[in-house]
Design goal:
This protein is an alpha+beta fold. Helix content is 55%, strand content 17%. The protein has ten helices and eleven strands. Helix 7 runs parallel beside helix 8. The longest helix is centred in the N-terminal third of the chain and has 57 residues. The chain is rod-shaped. It binds adenosine-5'-diphosphate.
């Protein structure tokens, strides 16, 4: 890619350079040719006066003085001077050979002297009257090249100098262009090469890999996206490891307890009475809840969870959830405020999943609220949506934890989670259920003061 980038930039530079040199050359040729024609015409206009003053000051047609005059005319020009009776007095020539001899080696070999030719294709003839104070002195017939050519040594050297500087500027621009395109292609490609290497390393499991971000352009954005992705993978990997350790712990605790009880029964240390069997049953229930949470989350995450939509009276559903949690809430002496809607609200939803959703939210409110705290549940009805708010006066969630609580296995306070039996799956499952119902969930929390979870559910979910 780097070579291709370099070559394409180079080709663009070359084309631009050639085009600009060509147009400069064209404009220059035109302007210079116009200048030469103009000079010739002016010299011819002044010729009669110059011839007559030469005659008057010398008293005769002095060949030397006339030679000087003819040399100011274009090369190749021939003047035939006749007296008024038509008798040829003199023939003056500004020969081309002189110039050819003088100009050899004056940059003409550069191949840039377009339009500078020694062979004159077209000629013009002009007849001029040379007048003196006493009337007509002579008649000059001037035969000169029709198109202005750069034949004069001074002009040739001027043109050569122009072309030389044009060529120099061109070469310099080309050199700078090559260096620039080499530098640009290197600058563009090396971060991509670094990124490719980093991607390979991440693929091999080195999730610590990060690339430096030196620009804010598309490549910089790609590098930022890569770093974010690697960070995310690292975090997920950490959460996965953490989760495995937590699950192992969560499984081992009740299992160890059950085994101890059974060993005690076998040794006759404890009686397998109702009280002890209830304790074992509680531990088994905990294991069942954990495994069903895990199964549900897994099914929801792989997209296999198919909600069974039916009309649901949201008040009745919340009533059932509150009822199932009421003994726990009462035990903790929590003040529960359940503000029921004035009229029945029916939405389309999956009864089992929505029960799980609100069970998890209210159970969390209960888990993270100290005894004698408060929990309030409110419903707001609108045309298309229903909004359910679960607020508690519990421990709250810190600002750093807030963005992550809906991620699976995330628990703000790991030590407390052991106490409360949390696995960090509840809210991840809530999130999945909300998505299946095309709803939204938000949370506001102040550490030490409590949290409020707001669920918005469309009334007609699953009907489109
Ligand atoms: P867990 O089983 O640990 O409760 P969740 O996914 O339900 O897992 O919640 C994730 C984390 O969010 C919890 O560990 C807890 O730190 C925090 N959290 C959830 N709900 C509340 C709440 N009502 N008050 C305070 N913290 C909460």
């Amino acid at each position: 890619m780097r070579r291709r980038l370099f070559l394409s930039t180079l080709v663009i530079i070359l084309i631009t350079l050639l085009l600009s040199m060509f147009s400069v050359n064209l404009v220059f040729q035109r302007q210079f040719s116009y200048y030469l024609t103009h000079t010739t015409e002016t010299a011819l206009d002044q010729l009669p006066d110059r011839l007559s003053s030469s005659y008057l000051s010398n008293g005769c047609w002095d060949p030397q003085a006339l030679d000087d005059i003819v040399h100011t005319l274009p090369l190749g020009t021939e003047i035939v001077l006749k007296d008024p009776s038509g008798k040829t007095l003199l023939t003056l020539v500004n020969p081309m050979e002189t110039m050819m001899h003088n100009s050899s080696g004056m940059g003409m070999g550069m191949g840039m002297n377009m339009g500078m030719s020694y062979s004159v294709q077209e000629w013009k003839t002009k007849t001029l009257n040379v007048n003196g104070p006493q009337g007509l002195l002579a008649i000059a017939t001037v035969h000169y090249p029709a198109s202005a050519r750069i034949l004069n040594p001074a002009d040739v050297s001027f043109v050569s100098a122009i072309y030389r500087s044009l060529l120099l500027a061109g070469s310099l621009a080309l050199l700078i262009g090559i260096l620039l395109s080499y530098w640009t292609s290197r600058r563009l490609v090396s971060p991509l090469q670094r990124l490719t290497k980093a991607v390979h390393r991440v693929g091999q499991g080195h999730l610590d890999e990060q690339v430096p971000i030196s620009t804010k352009d598309e490549v910089g954005q790609l590098a930022t996206a890569f770093n974010d992705m690697a960070n995310n993978l690292k975090k997920q990997e950490y959460l996965r490891k953490q989760f495995t350790a937590d699950i192992a712990h969560e499984l081992r605790t009740p299992l160890t307890s059950i085994r101890s009880y059974i060993e005690a029964f076998q040794d006759g240390v404890l009686q397998a009475d109702a009280e002890n069997l209830t304790i074992i049953n509680e531990e088994i229930k905990r294991l069942v809840t954990l495994s069903s949470d895990l199964k549900d989350l897994n099914v929801a995450e792989i997209g296999a969870l198919k909600p069974n939509f039916s009309p649901i009276n949201i008040e009745e559903l919340l009533d059932k959830v509150v009822y199932s949690l009421y003994p726990l809430i009462q035990e903790k002496e929590i003040d529960l405020e359940w503000e029921k809607p004035k009229e029945p609200i029916v939405i389309q939803g999956d009864e089992h999943l929505l029960t799980r959703l609100f069970y998890n939210l209210i159970h969390n409110a209960y888990k993270y609220t100290q005894s004698k705290g408060q929990i309030s549940i409110r419903i707001d009805n609108s045309t298309h949506n229903v909004r359910i708010r679960v607020r508690d006066s519990g421990i709250g969630i810190s600002e750093e934890d807030l963005p992550y609580i809906f991620e699976r296995f995330y628990r703000a306070d790991k030590s407390r989670a052991r106490e409360t039996g949390g696995t960090g799956i509840g809210l991840a499952l809530v999130q999945q259920i909300i998505q299946l119902h095309q709803g939204m969930i938000g949370v506001e929390s102040n550490p030490g003061q409590g949290s409020e979870f707001t669920v918005i559910l469309p009334k007609k979910a699953g009907t489109v």
